[in-house]
Amino acid sequence: MTGLVRSLDDRVDGYFDRLRGNPLADRVFYTASSLGEFGLIWVMLALLRALRGGAANERAAVRSITGTVVESVLVNAVLKSVFRRTRPVSDVVHPHPFRQPLTSSFPSGHATAAFCAATLLSDQDPLGPLYFAAAAVVATSRIHTKIHHASDVVGGIAIGTLLGVIGRRIAPLAKRS
């Protein structure tokens, strides 16, 4: 690992050290991390978009769920096996229960899924910024909980956004009239 990446990871981790132990921050980030498990939050948001009615909303929901399944396979079965990065050493007592993953740290699957889903769901939706806000909280939660290095999350954001853009091109929503 390069010194620049390690420096970024250490600096961001030091910032989060000041937040860890804050009851509100812990509750928000641990909840977000749990909601990100297995793409739960993205399925819920996709279903809520579909329930708003209209062909574009239904297509966006199906495309988002399909896209995050594809993203999950690519990231968890392919990329993580290539990189095999160790997770941060955590001597932190976790104030809330959550699943401890056993896969490689790079890239963050939560961040990849979050930004892939946000990119797909935000297409032709005025609520787009809310999807990205939720994605940012879920991705950031992985640093706060010390499950990922900051660079894992940054890489996950980039990969997830790229996969979302590819998904938009492969399966575009109907054009607005």
Layout of helices and strands:
Elements: H1 3-19, H2 23-36, H3 40-51, H4 55-83, H5 109-122, H6 128-144, H7 150-170
Helix pairs in contact: 2-6, 3-4, 3-5, 4-5, 4-7, 5-6, 5-7, 6-7
Give a short synopsis of this structure.
The chain is mainly alpha-helical and 177 residues long. The protein contains seven helices and no strands.
Basic shape: globular
Largest sheet: none
Q: How does CATH name the architecture?
A: Orthogonal Bundle
Number of helical segments? 7
Q: Give the helix level as a range of percent.
A: over 70%
Number of domains: 1
* Proportion of beta-strand residues: under 5%
Give the ordered list of helices and strands. Answer: HHHHHHH
Low-confidence stretches: none
Q: Which value, in Å, is the CA radius of gyration?
A: 16 Å
CATH topology: Vanadium-containing Chloroperoxidase, domain 2
Gap between N and C termini, in Å? 50 Å
Structural class of the helices, strands and pairings?
mainly alpha
User: Average pLDDT value?
Assistant: 91
Number of strands: 0
Q: Using the coordinates above, name the CATH class.
A: Mainly Alpha
What would you note in describing this structure?
The radius of gyration is 16 Å and the shape is globular. The longest helix is centred in the middle third of the chain and has 29 residues, at 55-83. By secondary structure, it is an all-alpha fold. The chain has seven helices and no strands. The model has no long low-confidence stretch (mean pLDDT 91). The protein has a single domain, classed as Vanadium-containing Chloroperoxidase, domain 2, CATH 1.10.606.20.
